[in-house]
Amino acid sequence: MSEHSPFDDDSEVAVTSESLRDDLLDAYPKKTRRKREKQVVVNHKQADESGLVSLPVIGANTRTIPGVITQRGCSYAGCKGVILGPTRDIVNITHGPIGCGFYSWLTRRNQTLAPTDEHDNFMPYCFSTDMQDENIIFGGEKKLAKAIEEAYELFKPKAIAVFSTCPVGLIGDDVHQVAAEMKEKLGINVFGFSCEGYKGVSQSAGHHIANNQIFKHVVGEDDTKRGKWSINLLGEYNIGGDAFLIEDLLQRCGIDLVATFSGNSTYDQFANSHMAQLNCVMCHRSINYVADMMEKKYGPPWIKVNFIGAKATAKSLRKIAEYFDDQELTEKVEAVISEEYPAVFEAQKTYKPRCEGKRAMLFVGGSRAHHYQELFAELGMKTIAAGYEFAHRDDYEGRDVLPDIKVDADSRNIEELHVDADPDHYRGDDRAKAIERERAGYKFKEYDGLMADMPEKALVIDDINHHESEELIRRMKPDLFCAGIKEKYAVQKMGVPCKQLHSYDYGGPYAGFQGAINFYKEIDRMVNAKVWSMIQPPWSDQADQNAPSSSSVRRDG
Amino acid sequence: MSEHSPFDDDSEVAVTSESLRDDLLDAYPKKTRRKREKQVVVNHKQADESGLVSLPVIGANTRTIPGVITQRGCSYAGCKGVILGPTRDIVNITHGPIGCGFYSWLTRRNQTLAPTDEHDNFMPYCFSTDMQDENIIFGGEKKLAKAIEEAYELFKPKAIAVFSTCPVGLIGDDVHQVAAEMKEKLGINVFGFSCEGYKGVSQSAGHHIANNQIFKHVVGEDDTKRGKWSINLLGEYNIGGDAFLIEDLLQRCGIDLVATFSGNSTYDQFANSHMAQLNCVMCHRSINYVADMMEKKYGPPWIKVNFIGAKATAKSLRKIAEYFDDQELTEKVEAVISEEYPAVFEAQKTYKPRCEGKRAMLFVGGSRAHHYQELFAELGMKTIAAGYEFAHRDDYEGRDVLPDIKVDADSRNIEELHVDADPDHYRGDDRAKAIERERAGYKFKEYDGLMADMPEKALVIDDINHHESEELIRRMKPDLFCAGIKEKYAVQKMGVPCKQLHSYDYGGPYAGFQGAINFYKEIDRMVNAKVWSMIQPPWSDQADQNAPSSSSVRRDG
Amino acid sequence: MTLLRHTSADQDVQREALTVNPAKTCQPIGAMYAALGLHRCLPHSHGSQGCCAYHRSTLSRHYKEPAMAGTSSFTEGSSVFGGQANLLAAIENIFTVYDPDVIAVHTTCLSETIGDDVPQIVEAAIDKGLLPEGKMVIHANTPSYVGSHTTGFATMTKAMVDYIAQSSGAEKIRDQVNLIPGWVEPADMSELKRLVKLMGLDPVTFPDTSGVLDSPQTGIHEMFPAGGATVDSIRSAGDSCHTIALGPICSGPAAKALFAKCQVPQTTMPLPIGLKATDQFIMKLREINGGFVPDEIMTERGRLLDLMTDMHQYFYGKTAALWGDPDQLVSLAELLITLDMIPKFVVTGTPGKKFFKRMGDVLGDHAQACKVDQGSCADMFRLHQWIKSDPDKVDLLIGNTYGKYIARDEDIPLIRHGFPILDRIGHQHFATVGYRGTTRILEQILDAFLDRQDRDAPESGFELVM
Amino acid sequence: MTLLRHTSADQDVQREALTVNPAKTCQPIGAMYAALGLHRCLPHSHGSQGCCAYHRSTLSRHYKEPAMAGTSSFTEGSSVFGGQANLLAAIENIFTVYDPDVIAVHTTCLSETIGDDVPQIVEAAIDKGLLPEGKMVIHANTPSYVGSHTTGFATMTKAMVDYIAQSSGAEKIRDQVNLIPGWVEPADMSELKRLVKLMGLDPVTFPDTSGVLDSPQTGIHEMFPAGGATVDSIRSAGDSCHTIALGPICSGPAAKALFAKCQVPQTTMPLPIGLKATDQFIMKLREINGGFVPDEIMTERGRLLDLMTDMHQYFYGKTAALWGDPDQLVSLAELLITLDMIPKFVVTGTPGKKFFKRMGDVLGDHAQACKVDQGSCADMFRLHQWIKSDPDKVDLLIGNTYGKYIARDEDIPLIRHGFPILDRIGHQHFATVGYRGTTRILEQILDAFLDRQDRDAPESGFELVM
């Protein structure tokens, strides 16, 4: 491993990762600095004598410091917006003041495809109890019950979900009780989420709350048997149509996709998902515990996959095939990869020379800051700094550190479901197959995290804030910065293109092979756009005279 | 007949028609005044002892005075734009510099309806020889011949027409010779028009030139027999879809419309038109001579009709039925009128009270300034001044004055075709029927002109110019002014709505019963639009302080 | 395949609890937008960090600009024990790291429900020496369960008066007027200032997001862009001779507070969108400037009228459905009425007493032909049900981006106006207030109608000229 | 059913004689438009009255304004014996009835073919005492069979120099520059003047149709509206320190004539549409003003750039077909190139030597991928055949109203730009020059693309946010 900072080679001033880190931290008051020191890490990998590499420890999944201008959102956003948002046929009622429902209304680009007009698709609707002053004072349960009834009467959905916003918990509304009563009364599934915005330290808490309730209230409701190569895809949210591309690949391979959690998903898919033979986890952060719970309760093992990047996609498909260990499947997978790869090579030939050597920074999400490095690598671009918005230590350092993670008060507040094998539904055959495959050297539950893949001495920053982003950009002038909408325009004002990796800037899809090609094109567009060279006016290199004040130079004529 | 001017009753100042006429004329240099005196006429109708009413003599179809800002256009416009424009399947090539073709390209709203994609419709195309300097110097015949060939090769039309622009006649290009040669060469009908802009004194000359050539080169080419109640409609140009409504009425009456000259027309209709039993003339000015020629050459008589105004439409339909004198037809016509009239009454009930008593002025065209008075009358509106842009004395004073009209040099230049009965095609039966009907009191070739229908002492102005229009409006403040696009915005700047009666302001259709209703609505809209009352700012009745000059009041802040 | 297909035309159960597709959002985002209109001010959301993230995202998506703001990042602990520690930390961090002149704190449903006393916490911050010399913290109480984004905007605007404006005791400055523009685009604020200056007066404009949320691309990110009302200018608002508050909902409270605090006479009037409301605006300025209107403004007025006469035939009798904020809706409805159009359906989620009265005044004779609704269930779902059940489909939709779903389903053209506009870029640069701004709206409406006419015309009726 | 369906994609016979759907019109209308930009001037068409009727109609349809002009109303007699009598009568009538300060006579193909000598006729008019004291008649030779409407405009503009401009012999006025804007909309002329003034210079602008062809509705018809370049101002053009001629075709000849006549140094540069051409314009003004650019202009530039960065993803790689006038086309093509778009097909009917070279410079590396044509048969028919035969349909059309037929047939969005725009209202009020004007074009392009995207999106891809 090279000892020098990834910054050194291109920059004119002698910035080292360490010096830059110091500079970032120097601006803070003492207490703030102490906290941030743990989260701003130089990726110095140390190999012991046996060659075993150890990574630095990073602070993650801890409270955001007030006032720093964070990227993070809240538990409600993670629960209602991210996890439940992409499911089209559940009526999602936000119980609270109007804002939360409003902001999470169609803003996440999780696409869905109802096969016909007869199929429900409630995603274009925003349902809210629009709590008013009096509901805060006298309680909102009655209004919530009424709202559920009204929603049922208008839309006749197969399920209604209720999402709690900040005041709901504080005033003591029992959404679960109301949900249970309405389930009884209406005869459809109704369930609630205690995903108040203050729960946990980031969206991550909301993912957990969402997944737990889906696991409790929906998974296992439908025992219909599935085909021979059946899988679930966990942690894929169909941003910009990613899931459509992945679905297409799986279908062409003959793999039976039971459920995606939750891109392009339906209630019925969740209900049947425990019948899949294998769980494939995309976003480790948002959902690895669901895979664990399914394994415990129903038997199917899980593996980590990644469909971002052409190489990663091929690898993931092969890994699935390898699990099922069936010649027919293996051949199909290879055939699909052979069909897709020529166009990828062609695209790489075009775009790599135009992007090679450019430097990217990625600060986003709970897996994207890692996965997208694959695509940049395929373009010959270097990721010189990265970090997550809401990940935990295992997402940085790998699952090996799981036992070492301290559970603090904020995380303790998030319910951990205790799951045992379901006597009626546990499938010993799946378990047996997993054990057999593991013996053959197949790796389950394997995730080494982001840091292992980052260059030596790259900066890894958890929960980055505006100050740190701006300093990084100002000092390092990367060719591209990846973040979200809140960061985008500030970054671009510095003359650096910013790719949104939440919404894809309304581009995409970027998953799979076709998606990789889309991404190459998009990055080429961004890093080679003429506009960045035109920001300085042609007279900027000439000394300006003192301009008269504008009032004095105006005339009539 | 009332003796007082139509202006007196509403206006506060004592303006008489005579005084206003004087005021209009006073602005002119002597020579100009002398000429305009003949064309600006107070409609003083004198009845002799026998009750026979004689109208004042008006100067018409005389040269426009240079510099007065006239409404008029030229011969080319009348020929290519008005008469040939609405025919969809002739390739019309303008031989000349680019402008003439450009300005007459799709600007007249004469709609057409090709029944299928396979039918030609060249109206959206502009064809021109785009004459250049060298063509003027060395002659343009070769270029014209080549252009005709190129047009044929690209479009394979059944006929090509060539229109001469000003320089063509001057440099001596023989378009007729070229046309004849190309007709020979290509095997399709090719014919030319000597419609140079300087021919005659207005568009009217162009109409004549156009009609003559169509009569010479196309009419009579196809002798297919027609049905029992067959007519041609002459002088209807399908502005805004008028012809579609008339076609519909005729069809529902069972009348066989052979050809319209030339609204929604085709080459084949013209070719077959001589087989119709009756010619019905809408715009007397533009085409009455064609009716005469057809009568002479082929036998069918002609009548004047008018489909502008509900009453006039009913009357015209009945007059056609009366001619054929067939119970079946009469019943059909009455049935159609009965179907249409209730909606007309309903509309009149709604709109008449909103428009009644409002005063209109009409200065447009060669028949519209007369025909549209019907519609205003149906709304209870008064036409207090009117005149034509390019009509002749008979259009004002009625066909009785035809023998008295002096043919001046300008008119003498326009070819008069000498037509005799066609020995092979003259239909004596049609002629016999006409004579029989005439004996029964049926009136052919009857047109009393505009003045007979105008109120006593209304102002009748031929070839009005901007000065006269502006004075009329300034002095009389009519509620509505009807003219064309050149006048529209100047009129409206005076706070008076201006209805275009060439293009219908991109509204319409206004013909027939439905068209009448459209027109009522439109006039109600115009005379009652809120906007006219808002032109003066609310502070206009308050004295304004002297504003500081704008430069001194600007500040920064 | 339509998207909002799940209810039939006749289906609008009498709802009293469920809001579907709201025509409003919550107070704090309004407070944040207003605070961005204060020069060198960092808005701060005292509550969960999700609120701040949502508000910043929405503002950035609408304005295509950075929307910088801090949050107190409440966790469960702060929700139980109060947010004082969080706000103190925030104040220290913000002044240390970002160095604004002002922090403008607004509350959320969370901090309001637990009852945090922001002024008391700010006192504590001062006591602890967390406020650098010359810096200030202002605040507004904006619980999300009261009012709407527009009232949040109003409340923060009023806070600027409460905290900053002062009467120096001297005579009022004859040529200086306060201009409270309400929630409009940055370009609107520029345009309003231009008009006041043309009228010979010196406007103290607040909040003023021009130069903040329409800032130039210069290669430098200015944490605090050049625009915005300065503290000094707002301070001097107490000495202005008059306050013009545009829009009673957004601007009325600040104007009234300024009168109460500094005795500046005030006039609250409609947002100058459309001929009549702009006439009213100019009339008032003319009253203040001693009675003149410069030629430039007369010309702009005349040009608008010219377009109104030229375009009238295309507007006459056409119907529209509108949703959004009351201050905008009243003026837009009036504009349509002056064009002889009919604003057939109008909804706003924002509550407030005088809306029906104001709409009634504007609609006049047409009131019977129009449906107007306001409040919690006066949402876009109701509007859409009205549209679905109307046999004469309305000709036009005017409102924010969410209208595109109705536009698609019902095949009705949409003019994007109001907040938020998430799917187009540029609106912040084109004013729709004043005579000139109204010409833009007219052009948009005309284009919508004529594009439709061109699209639907049969071959024979496809026109070159219009 | 398409309208321009009569030729298949592969059918474009090598034409040398037949123009189909021209991308130009004739000189006289340009002379008339230019003359309307002279204050208290009545344009006069020396030829058949049909020319004048056509030109006035077309100008009125484009500008939605009166376009007053006289005609010599040639009949067959005048065509044979010459138009002197007609012009003398016209001069007498016009001064008597309409009282302009200037009559601007232009010729037509008719009077040119017969060889009328306008200056000699004017001499005769003076001899006969037909010219009142202080009045003048200027003239331009604009045979319709030479050049195009744009060169006619150029010729009348040059006539203003030839007849009116004078050098007083004193030193040039340091802050006064001549601004020859070329054939642009009235709002463009206003915008250009505003920029020059912001740069601290005093523009002598001619012709100047602002205030003439965008005049207000006041209830009074002004035969000669308030706008237009005055004779006095043009007279003083000879004393300006510099002439900036925008567009070599429309403005170059006048600038050169002014240099020859009064030794005013001149710079002929592209019309400032787009970032680069506007930069060039500002650079030149900065050179003249001694070297400063005020903040206001820097901000406008930065805002344009901001939109360019924000919108870039929607523009990148998109293709367009353009037609119209060379001065516009060169700048529009450059604008598209700076947006990373490709102006794939470009035609102009206007002849002129440097067009290919200028387009080549602007297209740079893309020149090979683009088809450009000029002259008689470089018409919209050719452009349409190119579009039909291109397997990748272009994404956008930019040009005058006539493009709507191609737009309909090929289902490609059209942005109306140039002359004439007959089927929309309002364009004369919205500048497309300068940094601000360019933002309007950007907004139009973006709207065109996004409206299309919304229209064509499947249910699953219909997006709220963009």
Mind explaining what this structure looks like?
The complex is a heterotetramer, with two copies of chain A (557 residues) and two copies of chain C (466 residues). With 557 residues, chain A is of the alpha/beta class. Among the domains of chain A are: 1-72 and 356-398 and 449-502, Rossmann fold, CATH 3.40.50; 75-198, Rossmann fold. Chain A has 23 helices and 16 strands. In chain A, helix 6 (141-155) packs parallel to helix 8 (175-186), helix 9 packs parallel to helix 12 (284-298) and helix 14 packs parallel to helix 22 (512-528). The longest helix of chain A is centred in the middle third of the chain and has 29 residues, at 327-355. Mean pLDDT of chain A is 94; it is low at 547-557. Chain C is an alpha/beta fold and 466 residues long. In chain C, the strands form three sheets. Chain C has a five-stranded parallel beta sheet with strand order 12-11-10-13-14, with helices on both faces. Chain C has 17 helices and 14 strands. Chain C is globular, with a radius of gyration of 23 Å. In chain C, helix 4 packs across helix 6 (118-127). Chain C folds into three domains: 27-163, Rossmann fold, CATH 3.40.50; 173-292, Rossmann fold (3-Layer(aba) Sandwich), CATH 3.40.50.1980; 296-459, Rossmann fold. In chain C, helix 14 links the parallel strand 11 and strand 12 (371-374). Chains A and C meet through helix 3, helix 4, strand 5, helix 5 and helix 6 of A and strand 1, helix 1, helix 2, strand 3 and helix 3 of C. Strand 5 of chain A pairs antiparallel with strand 1 (19-20) of chain C, so a sheet runs across the interface.
Overall geometry of chain A: globular
What is the class of the domain at 1-72 and 356-398 and 449-502 in chain A in the CATH system?
Answer: Alpha Beta
Q: Which CATH architecture of the largest domain in chain C?
A: 3-Layer(aba) Sandwich
Supply the helix-strand structural class of chain A: alpha/beta
The share of residues in extended strands of chain C comes to: 5-15%
> What order do the strands of the largest sheet of chain A run in, or round the barrel if closed?
1-14-13-12-15-16
pLDDT < 50 stretches of chain C: none
**Rounded to an integer, what's the Rg of chain A over CA atoms?**
25 Å
Average per-residue pLDDT of chain C, rounded, comes to: 97
Oligomer: heterotetramer
Q: What is the largest interface, and how many residues per chain?
A: A-C, 94 and 90 residues
C-alpha end-to-end distance of chain C:
33 Å
Spatial arrangement of strands, main beta sheet of chain C: 12-11-10-13-14
Q: Estimate the helix proportion of chain A, in percent.
A: 40-55%
Average the pLDDT over all residues of chain A and give the rounded result: 94
Return the domain count of chain C.
3
**What is the β-strand count of chain C?**
14
CATH superfamily of the domain at 1-72 and 356-398 and 449-502 in chain A: Nitrogenase molybdenum iron protein domain
Strand segment count of chain A: 16
Low-pLDDT regions of chain A: 547-557
CATH class of the largest domain in chain C: Alpha Beta
